[in-house]
Amino acid sequence: MNKYPRYKTEQFRYLQRPVQLETFRAGRTLVPEHNCKLLFDRQSGHKMVHSTLALSLLLMAVTYNLAMAINKEKRPPQTLSRGWGDDITWVQTYEEGLYQAKQSNKPLMVIHHLEDCQYCQALKKAFAASEEAQELAQKEFIMLNLMHETTDKNLSPDGQYVPRIMFVDPTLTVRADITGRYSNRMYTYEPQDMPLLVENMHKASRLVQTEL
């Protein structure tokens, strides 16, 4: 015989049943435990997606701003320099160079060269790398580099070869007395001759002050 009343036993059994759908407590509906976990996982997933998206947008913005800053600081090379010095102001023609030399009372430095000449390329690299030559060219000279010959025969007193560097003073006189160290090609220079070329640049600049 059951010791307890039947209704109590049924009530006890009912209370022992697991809550599967919803539980009532103090008049409020509570979400079952497994539904809570699912809701939490969904919220966490949404937060992770939003965080990842925000981080991606931040990285894109930083990358874009960095690229813009680099582009602003990087100066585009001048087409007239042809690799001889992008910070130098170059004239386009021999006639323009003569005019600028006369107007500014500065000597004109004319560099004859060719793109497919290995000796020209080697001298160009050395000239562009020389801080003293670059500074002199920027401040003391009207600069011109040519890949063709002019009609002025005074620019080729011992032949039309490259590389060849000539100086013209503001009176429009070609200074044939400013030469390199080679007797067979008096106006050519090699990379190891950069000290002599810089010295000749100083000489051409001083002649303007002493002779003119």
UniProtKB/TrEMBL annotation:
The chain crosses the membrane at residues 48-67. Pfam families: Thioredoxin_7. Keywords: Membrane, Signal, Transmembrane, Transmembrane helix. GO terms for molecular function: dystroglycan binding. One of its GO terms (cellular component) is endoplasmic reticulum. SUPFAM superfamilies: Thioredoxin-like. InterPro entries: AGR/TXD, Thioredoxin-like_sf. Belongs to the AGR family. PANTHER family: ANTERIOR GRADIENT PROTEIN 3 (PTHR15337:SF5), ANTERIOR GRADIENT PROTEIN-RELATED (PTHR15337). This is Anterior gradient protein 3. It comes from Pleurodeles waltl (Iberian ribbed newt). The lineage of its organism: Eukaryota, Metazoa, Chordata, Craniata, Vertebrata.
